[in-house]
Design a protein that fits this description.
There is one protein chain. The chain has 305 residues and is α+β, with helices and mostly antiparallel strands. The protein is 14% helix and 28% strand. The longest helix is centred in the N-terminal third of the chain and has 9 residues.
């Protein structure tokens, strides 16, 4: 049986909420020794500094000291930090805010939530700092490379009601993408369906024969020379669905760092963002009953490169 959710004993600091780790049964003499072994990417000295500063607390709001004996089960809270985090040189924009929702326009290269080498440089942490809303939570995700609209929930009490819109397909989402085009060769169906599964590399998805589990509606908006602007409307929400579907049609999205070729880490080229934009969303608000519609002020261009 899962334990009831409780308010973290440490407040949000600089937009970052405390991380939590459960202490399993084990042989560690102290909680400090467990943390040092459990998180080898964090140096012993760093843990000692956090503990000395009072930044490691248990679920009962009791401080973890260097000498405190190990006990299990117990939850321990601490602040995650990153040294030398790379700044993403693009700004997000808040398009809408009320008591229930925040709608933000995300730039490319910025992840929605903290992950891996990104912490302060994530949309969620930036917005928490900017808006001073500690309990802000994204209702959905878009890829780090993708730009455009992301919806956030403000209140825990109504969050589940908004989240349910997505699996029940009660929200219309439209994207734009720039792809290569060969006049007389390129052929685009109105609807593309396929079965998507995890690839051997965790970063990628691939198609396989079988019952389709993904569907995208496609419209060619403009063709200029050897490039085209597509309007993509995902019916389902599989990981990398639009990118894999465009690739399968022989039109990989321009500047894609994963498809068809997975580029090495740390090779972001800020001058060549992925040409995929989460352009608009529309839905009937399940709390207020209002019809909501939001459009990104960003646009993709077929102007000569």
């Amino acid at each position: 049986m899962s334990r009831p959710r409780q308010t973290p004993p440490l407040p949000t600091r600089d937009g970052v909420g405390p991380s939590c780790v459960g202490l399993p049964y084990g042989p560690w003499p102290t909680i400090a020794e467990f943390l040092i072994e459990r998180f080898p990417a964090i140096t012993r000295d760093a843990w000692l500094e956090r503990i000395a500063a009072g930044d490691v607390i248990d679920e009962h709001r009791m401080p973890v000291t260097l000498e405190r004996r190990y006990e299990s089960p117990l939850r321990v809270y601490y602040y995650r930090t990153l040294d030398g985090e790379v700044h993403i040189p693009f700004e997000e924009q808040v398009l809408f805010q009320d008591d229930e929702l925040v709608v933000a326009d995300k730039p490319p290269f910025l992840p929605v939530t903290p992950t891996g080498k990104y912490l302060q440089e994530s949309l969620l942490v930036r917005l928490k700092r900017k808006l001073n809303i500690d309990d802000l939570v994204p209702l959905h995700r878009i890829d780090r490379s993708t730009s455009g609209l992301v919806l956030f929930s403000v209140r825990r009490e109504t969050r589940g009601t908004y989240q349910q819109m997505f699996p029940e397909r009660r929200i219309a989402k439209h994207y734009e993408a720039v792809v290569p085009w060969q006049e007389g060769v390129s052929s685009v169906p109105d609807t593309y369906r396929s079965r998507l599964v995890d690839d051997e590399h965790f970063m990628r998805m691939r198609e396989e024969p079988g019952e389709p589990n993904s569907e995208t509606r496609i419209e060619v908006q403009e063709v200029r020379g050897d490039r085209a602007l597509l309007r993509l409307s995902p019916v389902t929400g599989r990981k990398h669905q639009l990118r894999v579907h465009c690739l399968a049609l022989g039109m990989p999205i321009e500047n894609d760092p994963i498809y068809p070729v997975l580029l090495p880490e740390n090779t972001d080229d800020f001058d060549k963002p992925l040409q995929l934009l989460a352009k608009s969303v529309a839905f009937q608000d399940p709390v207020t009953g209002d019809l909501r519609s939001f459009t990104s002020p960003r646009s993709l261009s077929l102007a000569p490169r």
